[in-house]
Amino acid sequence: MSALVAIVGRPNVGKSALFNRLLRTGGLPAQSTAITESTPGVTRDRNYGQTEWEGKRFTIIDTGGFYAETLPHETAEIARQIKEQALLAVNEADVIIHLLDGKEGLNPSDMELAGILRKSGKKILWAVNKIDSMPKEIGVMEFYRIGAEIILPVSAITGLGIDDLMDMIIAVLPLSGPGLSDSSEELPRIAVVGRPNVGKSTLINSLLGKKRLIVSPAPGTTRDPVDSICTYYGKKYLLVDTAGIRKKQKEYSLESFSMVRAVKSIERADVAIIVLDASEGITDQDQVIAGIVEEYGKGALFLLNKWDIVKDPETAFKKITAQLDTMMWFMKYSPAITVSGLEKKRITKIFPIINEIITERRKRVPTAELNRFMEKLISTIPMPRYKGKEIKLYYITQVDIEPPVFTIFANHPSAIRATQRKYIERVIRDEYSFKGTPIRISVKPR
């Protein structure tokens, strides 16, 4: 894991904007960035992203406002947890950027936070944001009262001073150790998706065995996707907790933007854990979410969560599996298990199934074997005639994995209907399984 640089400060000083700017400046391939909005307290969970400067790679942590006490749109409990998450980020970090607001000026909260940061014993950089409209020397003068030898003027919006900040970060990073590995391990990416308040963050916290994500009864607590590394029997996985996906909003809102971010997390994932609220049953929105996962060709596992509060489990299981068959008919290949994220019941069954799905997604069937199978298959497929001519299937080959893709060559590809393709898919699954993953079938002329 690369060295960690945490950005901390009061609410609305521009931490998320700086986080995004540092990621873009580093020039690594596009990755998640933090949601930014002018409402104080928008960032709630720690968000992680990698960047690079002068050949050194490091991870930046974006945190919620350090002093977000009782904001108008937040509950006191969530405000308390925001502060707790920021403190956790400080404990994890190798370097801390204390971001200050050049427009509002220095205030007592900044001084108090600076004292707390000094006690951490970590390397601290002080940066003053939002100085676009004034000479940078004037914009930072009063901030020297905080006791820093160097104050860095920056603008997260325009990019002013960002190169200097990156140079300073590199200068104070640890010189050696496992934290400065320049190559990041390729881990299976598991997106945890579902409607708001189905228990996604509780589930991830239980899997990690520590309090990593904010948990609240209020729907929509998670807004940014948050990456966490989880280890199960020596194997590592990257878990992504996403904002709950709601129905599309006609106008821009923070919630609708979070939905877009959740979809992007699905796009980046290998396998999606689709969390369903077993106590409520399956809804139309659950079906929409599953459709997004299938559309992107991702592996999938249905998690029937909150099983601890289900009354009459035997009857409930029959009912919800019937719902799965009816509403998730397009994903009958995906397994489903009952769990309780809150009580940690049966959650250890998740990783063996994920391993199996990943194996199935990477499985490749030799062409010779496929065509022997195809010879038996042809006689069982009810084929229509095309302009009075017989439709012939010549041969089949697997052309890709993750998800598995098959190409069939025929004399009249356009005449082969969706029903025939679904039949071919069904018999391929009967023979080769491909559990938990969609497969794609195309028909081309020879």
How far apart are the first and last residues' alpha carbons, in Å?
Answer: 49 Å
* Structural class based on helices, strands and sheet pairing: alpha/beta
CATH superfamily of the largest domain: P-loop containing nucleotide triphosphate hydrolases
| Helical segment count | 12
Mean pLDDT: 78
> Which segments are poorly predicted (pLDDT under 50) over 5 or more consecutive residues?
35-39, 41-46, 68-74, 176-185, 212-223, 248-258
Main β-sheet, spatial strand arrangement: 2-3-1-4-5-6
Reading off the top of the CATH hierarchy, the class of the largest domain is best stated as Alpha Beta
CATH domain fold name of the largest domain: Rossmann fold
Helix content: 25-40%
Per CATH, the architecture of the largest domain is 3-Layer(aba) Sandwich
Report the order of strands and helices: EHEEHEHEHEHEHEEHEHEHEHHEEHE
Query: What's the alpha carbon Rg, rounded to whole Å?
Result: 26 Å
Shape: elongated
Number of strands: 15
How would the blueprint of this fold be written?
Elements: E1 3-8, H1 15-26, E2 47-53, E3 56-62, H2 76-92, E4 95-101, H3 108-119, E5 123-129, H4 136-140, E6 151-153, H5 162-172, E7 189-193, H6 200-208, E8 226-232, E9 235-241, H7 254-268, E10 271-277, H8 284-295, E11 299-305, H9 313-327, E12 336-338, H10 350-361, H11 367-378, E13 393-400, E14 405-410, H12 418-432, E15 440-445
Parallel strand pairs: 1-3, 1-4, 4-5, 5-6, 7-9, 7-10, 10-11, 11-12, 14-15
Antiparallel strand pairs: 2-3, 8-9, 13-14
